[in-house]
Amino acid sequence: MNGFWNRLEQVRPELENEFKTDCTVQNSGLLPAQLKARCAEIAAQPGLSHTLIKAQLEAFLLKNAPIAVCRAGWFADSLQHENIILNLRAQWLQQVGNGPLTKTLQAHRAAQTTRAYTGEVDFGHTCPDWQAILTLGVPGLLRRAEQQQAALQKNGPLTAAQQEFYTAQKTVYTALGCYFGRVANAMEQAAGGEKRLLFSAKNMRALQTAAPQNILQAMQLISAFYFLQSFLEGTICRSIGRLDVLLYPYYQNDLSEGRFTKAQIAELLGFWFLRFKAYGVIANLPFTLCGLNGRGKDVTNSLSELIIEVYGNLRVESPKLHIRCNLQTPKGLLLKVLELIRSGCSSFLLCWDDTVKSALVKLGQAPQLAENYIMVGCYEPAAIGAEVPCTCAGRVNLLKAAELALTGGYDLLTGEQTGCHTGNAADFKTFKEYFNAVLAQTVFLAKKTMQLITAYEQYYPELHPSPLFSGTLQSCVQRGCDAYSGGAVYNNTSVCGLGLASAADAVIAVKKLVFEEKRLTLPQLLVLLKNNWQGQEQLRLYARGRLPKYGNNNPEVDTLAAELTACLAGALNGQPNGRGGVFRCGMFSIDWGADFGRPCAASANGRLCGEPLSKNIAATLSANKAGVTGLILSATRLNHTDLPNGTVLDLVLHPSAVSGAEGLQALLGLVQTYFNRGGMAVHLNVLDPAVLRRAQAEPQNYANLQIRLCGWNVYFNELSKQEQDAFILQAENNE
Length: 735
Description:
Blueprint: H1 8-16, H2 32-43, H3 50-64, E1 67-68, E2 78-79, H4 84-97, H5 102-113, E3 117-119, H6 130-153, H7 160-191, H8 195-206, H9 215-233, H10 243-257, H11 262-279, E4 286-289, H12 302-314, E5 320-325, H13 331-342, E6 348-352, H14 353-363, H15 367-371, E7 373-376, E8 380-383, E9 394-397, H16 398-407, H17 431-457, H18 460-463, H19 467-470, H20 474-479, E10 493-498, H21 500-516, H22 522-530, H23 537-545, H24 555-572, E11 583-586, H25 593-597, H26 627-635, E12 649-653, H27 660-676, E13 681-686, H28 689-697, E14 706-708, E15 713-715, H29 721-733
Parallel strand pairs: 4-5, 5-6, 9-10, 10-11, 12-13
Antiparallel strand pairs: 1-2, 3-9, 6-13, 7-8, 14-15
């Protein structure tokens, strides 16, 4: 294999731009117009269910769509599918929205527009059973479906839905085997005699008839399946799994049998990660390392360390890496990760196994499955191979609940009734009465969100059958039931609370301004907020700068935040959804803060109308005056085990606070303190405001400066000026 290696850096620009370049192999498939015409005929077949339409479309495209091959890389899986299936799903969704759901959507439109709550479909945030995919391979997945169909038929005739499920399985997985052969042919054609591509094509062809036999084949299969599930079928895969668990057997065998050296495997990993970066997926694509295995043992191994080394050397913002932590996690590995974060490679999430497991078990999951979790997407735990969590189906605006409690359920800006009737603010004699109204509005918004989502969910089987994804889940295959028809072990739906700090700060401000300091009556406060503090700038600055704020280890306001969290979780967790599962609560905002803050009136904590909501469970921007320790103490007054859909704390540190060996140990101590106090997940930015200001003024000199934005990383230059200013302000707050 001489001549194959030590090529990564010389071809890196080509690899990173692979999907911005037309690499279509000539005559490898039908023309776009031909594809669309034939697919339109398939979709128009009278009497054919959406399940079988979807399966036939996937099979046709796998057999006939052109294939692209980047000659610089090791991996090829790009099918030029023309978004045909995604466009068809959009049509189906529109038909449902303009038909049976018309009245339902109309009833929720005002609240959706004002962002009191939102509810929608979620066909992303999935993770296939990667272990089954690698262990069985495509031929094995097909055989498993055939054998299970035969086993069920021994007990009597199959239902129509079961028959359709197995027909879809055979249709898609037979075509998938054909697809691997087509990709191998395309690679050979594109190779032009280049031995590396020919070698890679040989390994790709082997996947037609068997499960992967080496690490290259395993990586090829993961890459291909990810691409097809996400972009062809539209069941967005939001994790490529526990890589050190999945790839370690191949790693060991390849080294012991001399197929690849450690250096060669490291290079393959580098090529592989750059391929995932080149996809350019929204919010980055995650994978997971380390953590407990379902039997109480940590899985960290030598491959874990190699992956971190390769990843750190690449300095990429995507994919992103989730590190599962527990008492057995090697300290040296954690220090290496923190050192990378400190150096600006911040695309890491650290999560604590005990808290995540407890949250999932409390929701009703089996302990072994709960312990073998991954974070899908940004921070959302899910049981591998057993759960369809729909982690971003709904959102509840906690600041809006605080606003609606002042108005008796009317939106302060539009005058529309979007909340419940909790009485006239003028009649509240005590703060407790007001706060009870806030809690009542929170529960009401949560129930309305669940109603809207449940209305959508009854149409999931026809909106999004997913034969490719479903075929990886053992429970789906055993039951003969699609993943979006309730076939998974856990068919859950998730709703997130937004603006926790904003809401807690607003509520404590009402307590201080009205009920304790008696600077205003509630009706006077209501007028003031409707007028956006006009003529009361001095009082606004007092409210903004002098009143207690969440994130400063103030028990009074922190307790309010904890009660809001418990209230939302109590309203959501365990409530039945429309897919045979339950709802689960999360507390994070990712990048929704601006969108949900824009329709919010001014609030009692000095916030002006339209300003963004606070992020995740961090303090309101510039409100954290007690340092990182104060923020950690506040955040861990919340019960994170009430948040099975996940939560995360954003920490921003100045480089001077974590410099040198002592600084690194201090950083480790902060993370350990957070976890020891029950924290679930944390991510970090180490930012120098002076550097950020220079980067803002001289972007050409800071092209590679990364920022941990929400649950993903971006380059600082890609942010808007407003977003850049917010990070500069956060960094200045830590000087």
